[in-house]
């Protein structure tokens, strides 16, 4: 009986018009010449058993087989009808086999054992081991070789698993892992069960993983099952584990763990569940806003990263992307997953990369340039694939802003005298202005509609108390003053939504100017010149308030008293509520956020910044500052000093861009040396303002 490789060699010889050299066969099969000679001996035995002549072996010429046509056809029929066995492994497949064979055991494996399993010579295996060490690079020390004993894996468990997964996926296109079961490691692991568990995770997370991410997670879980059976489990940083337990992905990971425990009769430690959660977080791509996200401890840091990324792209590319709040939301969601991929070096695949690089080369190159600050801050390399995904967000934003002038103002009509009057007012308005009607409602339904809908303008026949939405009071029979005031609003609205178009025009102008300048002058620093021209041509840029504009004496309280953190948060919030910065709903949302996610609001030891989402009732942007005589314990954060807070800086922001800009300025102030000591010893509100550099 022939194995598959011998069958392949015999076919090559039969169909070749010339003798084939052993060197050529060895190179073609990625094995040593000695292995080929062993195979040729085995083929000779087969030919004799079947009644044929031996192979002809001529030095310096090669191997051939002289047969008449009839005999040749008989031999081909014999080969076709006989059972072949054992999948013929390429060098890449042998390398993967060796790595996973080592992962399966905690003792030395000899070169001879590996050669016997893969039907190759010891020389072939020794060459494979050398190649493995080359591919491992700096991690080559993870393979320990001992004369007379063999080889085995040593080192950190996480690194071992990452290395195994990486080498597998480096050659994923050439391997057929799930159809050809050539890796003995998975012989007793039902891959289908693991795949079903991952599919269930997709449903629970309401997300569809890419094929690459899906297979990567399946491989990780298969390796984990085998290593846990050997009592080789992962250890994780305690603080990171606590943070992971607060994510939805951890709950889903726990569900996966329970399924695997039941099916494979193992006990999966908590740290392994945390590591599964990391893979789920890293696999969770998003190109759209996810309003279901629950904030976590990283959110403030990620908000600042995203804000900086958008600002740098605006400067480099020449379009003010800060005008697009949806971009901020979408990038925020994307970066929450990306952070885990960066930190834990989880590889990704981007099937759109080539198209992005070809069709949107300008945006892609800007993202690659800007990503340098991410690499420095995160101390990791941002791959081209990651830059491609980030580029998609900016590409979408550019198109969205170019087409933003097509969006009509969303208007709510409110009338005290009934729906009939509202319809009459609406008919008159539509004869003059072009807008989108959100609804026509009575007064008692107005506030509920405003909470539930995105509204640009409220047109009402009765006074309404609205601080955060433009409100125009009109007569049922529109008079000249009403029409004039509405004309001003719709004109301003049109100018605001055309800003993006102006920005895009500025980019074209910059490129045109650079071409003209380049024809007549030598440009020593093209990028610097491009940035300066973009800044010069940029118009209608929104100015955001500086930190000094967001704090006043009226919103500072010294010698505050609170028995609990809930009471302290309420005191800080009421200072904002009293001056019309937030609603009661905002105060309740702040308390709920702390209960849900805990320590994310503690910026620095002793200092917390309670806040909620803009949509939770933020009417204006501003801070309040509460300095307590005695610290309160945020008991869900940490026991001990880290959870004891004496200074609460409560933030209200009407949008995320303003929120993040204010937060960045605040962090710079708080990081001043001995800031906590200084602010807790002040004697007046003026001294507090001086600490914040407010004149």
Automatic annotation (TrEMBL):
Keywords assigned: Repeat, Transcription, Transcription regulation, Transferase
Q: Which residues form the PRD domain?
A: 185-290, 297-404
Provide the leader sequence positions.
none
Question: Known Pfam families for this protein?
Answer: HTH_11, PRD, PTS_EIIA_2
What GO biological process term is on the record, naming one? phosphoenolpyruvate-dependent sugar phosphotransferase system
The coiled-coil segments of this chain are: none
- Domain PTS EIIA type-2: where? 549-695
SUPFAM superfamilies referenced in this protein's UniProt entry, alphabetically: Phoshotransferase/anion transport protein, PTS system IIB component-like, PTS-regulatory domain, PRD
State the Gene3D superfamilies in the record: 3.40.50.2300, Mannitol-specific EII, Chain A, PRD domain, Winged helix-like DNA-binding domain superfamily/Winged helix DNA-binding domain
Source organism superkingdom: Bacteria
Record GO terms (molecular function): protein-N(PI)-phosphohistidine-sugar phosphotransferase activity
Q: Which PROSITE patterns match?
A: PRD_2, PTS_EIIA_TYPE_2, PTS_EIIB_TYPE_2
UniProt domain PTS EIIB type-2: residue ranges: 409-498
| Statement: the UniProt record of this protein carries the keyword NADP | no
Protein known as:
Transcriptional antiterminator
């Amino acid at each position: 009986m022939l194995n598959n490789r011998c069958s392949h060699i015999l076919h090559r010889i039969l169909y070749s018009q010339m003798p084939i050299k052993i060197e050529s066969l060895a190179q073609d099969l990625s094995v040593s010449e000695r292995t080929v000679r062993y195979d040729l001996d085995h083929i000779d035995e087969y030919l004799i058993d079947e009644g044929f002549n031996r192979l002809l072996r001529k030095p310096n010429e090669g191997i051939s087989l002289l047969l008449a046509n009839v005999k040749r056809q008989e031999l081909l029929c014999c080969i076709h009808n006989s059972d072949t066995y054992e999948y013929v492994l390429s060098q890449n497949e042998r390398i993967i086999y060796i790595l996973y064979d080592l992962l399966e055991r905690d003792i030395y494996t000899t070169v001879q054992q590996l050669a016997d399993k893969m039907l190759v010579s010891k020389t072939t295996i020794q060459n494979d081991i050398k190649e493995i060490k080359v591919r491992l690079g700096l991690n080559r020390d993870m393979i320990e070789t001992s004369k007379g004993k063999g080889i085995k894996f040593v080192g950190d468990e996480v690194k071992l698993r990452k290395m195994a997964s990486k080498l597998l996926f480096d050659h994923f296109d050439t391997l057929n892992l799930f159809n050809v079961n050539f890796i003995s490691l998975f012989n007793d692991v039902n891959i289908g069960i693991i795949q079903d568990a991952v599919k269930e995770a997709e449903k629970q997370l309401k997300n569809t993983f890419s094929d690459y991410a899906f297979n990567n997670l399946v491989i990780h879980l298969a390796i984990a099952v085998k290593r846990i059976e050997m009592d080789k489990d992962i250890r994780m940083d305690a603080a990171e584990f606590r943070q992971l337990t607060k994510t939805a992905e951890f709950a889903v990971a726990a569900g996966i763990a329970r399924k695997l425990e039941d099916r494979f009769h193992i006990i999966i430690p908590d740290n392994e569940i945390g590591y599964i959660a990391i893979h789920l977080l890293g696999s969770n791509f998003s190109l759209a806003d996810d309003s279901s996200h629950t904030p976590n401890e990283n959110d403030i840091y990620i908000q600042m990263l995203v804000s900086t990324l958008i600002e740098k792209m605006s400067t480099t590319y020449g379009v003010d992307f800060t005008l697009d709040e949806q971009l901020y939301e979408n990038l925020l969601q994307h970066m929450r997953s990306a952070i885990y991929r960066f930190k834990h070096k989880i590889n990704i695949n981007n099937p759109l990369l080539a198209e992005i690089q070809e069709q949107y080369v300008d945006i892609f190159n800007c993202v690659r340039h800007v990503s340098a600050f991410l690499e420095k801050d995160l101390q990791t390399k941002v791959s081209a694939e990651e830059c491609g995904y980030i580029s998609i967000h900016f590409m979408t934003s550019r198109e969205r802003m170019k087409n933003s002038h097509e969006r009509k103002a969303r208007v709510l009509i409110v009338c005290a005298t009934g729906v009939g009057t509202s319809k009459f007012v609406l008919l008159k308005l539509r004869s003059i202005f072009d807008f989108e009607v959100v609804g026509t409602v009575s007064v008692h339904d107005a506030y509920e509609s405003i909470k539930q809908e995105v509204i640009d303008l409220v047109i009402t026949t009765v006074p309404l108390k609205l601080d955060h939405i433009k409100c125009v009071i009109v007569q049922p029979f529109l008079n000249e003053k009403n029409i004039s005031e509405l004309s001003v609003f719709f004109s301003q609205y049109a100018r605001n939504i055309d800003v993006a178009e102006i920005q895009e025009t500025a980019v074209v102008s910059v490129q045109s100017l650079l071409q003209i300048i380049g024809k007549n002058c030598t440009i020593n620093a093209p990028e610097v010149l491009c940035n300066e021209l973009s800044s010069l041509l940029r118009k209608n840029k929104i100015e955001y308030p500086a930190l000094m504009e967001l704090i006043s004496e009226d919103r500072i309280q010294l010698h505050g008293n609170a028995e609990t953190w809930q009471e302290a948060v309420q005191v800080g919030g009421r200072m904002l509520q009293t001056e019309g910065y937030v609603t009661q709903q905002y105060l309740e949302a702040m308390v709920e956020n702390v209960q849900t996610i805990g320590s994310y609001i503690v910026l620095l030891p002793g200092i917390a910044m309670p806040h909620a989402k803009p949509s939770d009732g933020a009417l204006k942007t501003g801070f309040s500052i509460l300095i307590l005589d005695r610290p309160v314990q945020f008991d869900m954060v940490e026991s001990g000093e880290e959870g004891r807070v004496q200074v609460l800086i409560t933030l209200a922001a009407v949008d995320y861009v303003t929120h993040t800009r204010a937060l960045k300025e605040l962090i710079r102030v708080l990081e001043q040396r001995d800031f906590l000591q200084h602010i807790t010893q002040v004697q007046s509100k003026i001294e507090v303002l001086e600490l914040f550099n407010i004149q």
